[in-house]
Amino acid sequence: ELMAAISSCMTTAQADLRAMAVKTVGTLAEPGDQKYIDLVNERLTDDHWSVRKAAVESCGRIALKGDQHAVAAVGSMIRDSHAEVRSVALEVFAQLAGRGDRQ
Q1: pTM, 2 dp
Q2: Which tops the pLDDT comparison, 100 or 60?
């Protein structure tokens, strides 16, 4: 299966390939598919900022508005060490969070 092959690239040693795989999953996965939301969220703790950024963006594409698990995961990235990750996390958090959500 294509998604299985792409998913396997998410753990390669090369950060650029991991980021590309995460972005691809975010593009191909069906909105609301919890399996792929969980898969990209595993990369939120990646050592490389570009992979974490891709994971936040992909979570924003797959997760449905109001998905509390995704809101919490993305909300935790607002304090990331890299400015680009923080910036994207703020945008995605605003997109996913309902009124009154504070993480």
Answers
A1: 0.91
A2: 60
